[in-house]
Design a protein that fits this description.
Radius of gyration: 14 Å
Oligomer: single chain
Largest sheet: 6 strands, mixed
Structural class: alpha/beta
Number of helices: 4
Number of domains: 1
Distance between the termini: 25 Å
Helix content: 25-40%
Strand content: 25-35%
Length: 128
């Protein structure tokens, strides 16, 4: 099944709940691609996945984006449960664009992120 803009919030809220159930802790992800555009209402089209660029860390100096080599086990399990419940592809939550951090991001990139909380365990910073 494809992810429609109107169902994206439900899916990410479900992921927040599953993170808790699977014994995870709070995580902030930086998301790009079609799901970011849909979440911000910039496009009204479906997407097959949620592309994670990295992990966001909020500091006194702003947001720092850190590379993730792999998701924590609890996040993988939470994502698998959401995939099952919403009939999504197994890799609907993926680190496909993570290598972009090695080549560098545009100046002031972090200042253009839009923060959305999906509960106690999941915060997403969407690229605007």
């Amino acid at each position: 099944m494809l992810i429609e803009p109107k169902s994206l919030n439900k899916i990410l809220t479900a992921l927040d709940k599953q993170i808790r159930i699977h014994g995870g802790c709070h995580i902030s992800l930086v998301v790009c691609g079609g799901s970011a555009l849909a979440a911000l209402g910039l496009v009204n089209r479906t997407t097959k996945d949620v592309d994670v660029l990295g992990k966001a860390e909020e500091t006194d100096n702003g947001i720092k984006i850190c590379k993730i080599k792999s998701f924590p086990k609890w996040l993988e399990e939470a994502a698998k449960t959401v995939a099952r419940d919403y009939f999504l592809p197994e890799n609907w939550l993926n680190l496909g664009p993570a290598s972009q951090l090695e080549t560098g991001l545009p100046k002031d990139f972090e200042n253009r992120l839009v923060k959305k909380k999906y509960g106690e365990y999941l915060t997403v910073f969407f690229i605007s």
